Amino acid sequence: MIGLVDCNSFYCSVESVFRPDLAGKPVVVLSNNDGCVVARSAAAKELGVEMAAPWHQVPAALAAKVSVFSSNYPLIGDFSQRVFNTLSSFAERIERYSVDESFLEFAPGPRWDELGATIRQTVRRNTGIPVSVGFASTKVLAKVANKIAKKTSSAAGVFVLEEVAVDAALAALAPEDIWGIGGRLGQRLRANGVRTALDLKHLDADVARRLLTVVGQRISLELQGIPCLSIEEVAPAKKSICTARSFGRPIETLEDLREPLASYVSAVAEKLRKQGSVAGRMQIFLHTNPFKPAERQLCPGRECVLSTPTNFTSALVGRAQEILTSLWRPGYRWHRVGVVVMDLVPERTEQLAFDSPPIELMERRRRAMAAMDRVNQSFGRGTLHVGSAAANVHTSAWKMRQASLSPRYTTSWSELPEVGI
Ligand SMILES: [Mg+2]
Asked: Residue 134 — φ and ψ, nearest 5°?
């Protein structure tokens, strides 16, 4: 049996944990730079706040009724981990599918509705986050069960999709409602007479393969209750890593661009080390603001080959700054800078070049980076950083606009919630 546990309105629920006064109230969370609505509480949905709506276009009368928060990534990341830790005690095999969803695999036996209720209560007690639980025989059907658990008030947040009930449930869903079928595949299916998820289940195997490739064929089999997608306990190492952010205000000079770039490249280097990879190629890009059509527009980018693949922060930052110098042009108001690293291979298997540093030096660099990562892990990000990067991206002059940021209640000593008598 597969269980899918999904946090309800996760970003909004996280904001409500230390603000019990917000329970049941309309709450929204905004994207980077307070741009668009990325999460809505149930009450905000009822009021008519649209998903992905640009916040500045939401009518003032409506906005006034809603509590607004900027995306608080440290808080969200910490609660994601807390929920996952609690769920890990319920199943031996668990896949963290996204920031707010996990698949759990169970041996046959228990009363599933009771287990689901226990999972809900335990996560709520341990973390304060409400979740919905769907049980079924495959991952794709567990997604369907979870959807029903959320939509049906009589389900009380738990739904067990028994085999006999599968067809009725699928007949009520469109093909696009099924996990893995996007809008484009949905259109292709409709054009071929597949109108419901039940039609998709009964699609002939050869037709499914022709219309949807092997991925779609697996989805069709999963709908029939034949497991094709296994629980992936270890996330596969990323093949490329990208960090790009918009600035809170436009930047014009080359010197002012250096600090955000060094900070983003440092973050990427840390991610590389975390997954044990080195990068063989790096791309840097700059953007002006496409939403300001009256301003001159330019989006230059350039990539370089790293003859010795690396995850050494100083080496990557140095090359990135060289590329930035070649990209920058005067007279533009820059809105965004980003970095992508590619051609990732596991550390210590990289091909060395004639101009590679001596092995002893590379080893010393590895130890220095390991020490830096440990210090930053213990004492907070940015405690140790390369000189050109910002110590704290949250207080730098180019920081994202986060006008409605809540405290980092659980990851910053100075922002702990206070309890008074
Ligand atoms: Mg969710």
From this structure: -120, 135
Question: Cα separation of 39 and 376, whole Å?
Answer: 30
The runs of H, that is alpha helices, within 278-358 are: 313-327
Contact, 238 vs 344, CB < 8 A? yes
Burial-class residue 246 by CB neighbours within 10 Å (0-12, 13-18, 19+).
buried
Q: What is the pLDDT of residues 249-258, one digit of tens each?
A: 899 999 999 9
Give pTM, 2 decimals: 0.76
Distance 46 CA to ligand 1 centre (A): 17
Rounded to the nearest angstrom, the distance between the alpha carbon of 9 and the centre of ligand 1 is 5
99 Cα–ligand 1 center, Å? 8
- Report whether 121 contacts 249 (CB < 8 A): no
**Using CA atoms, how far apart are residues 38 and 261, in angstroms rounded to an integer?**
26
What pLDDT digit, counting tens, does each position of 229-245 carry? 988 877 777 788 988 88
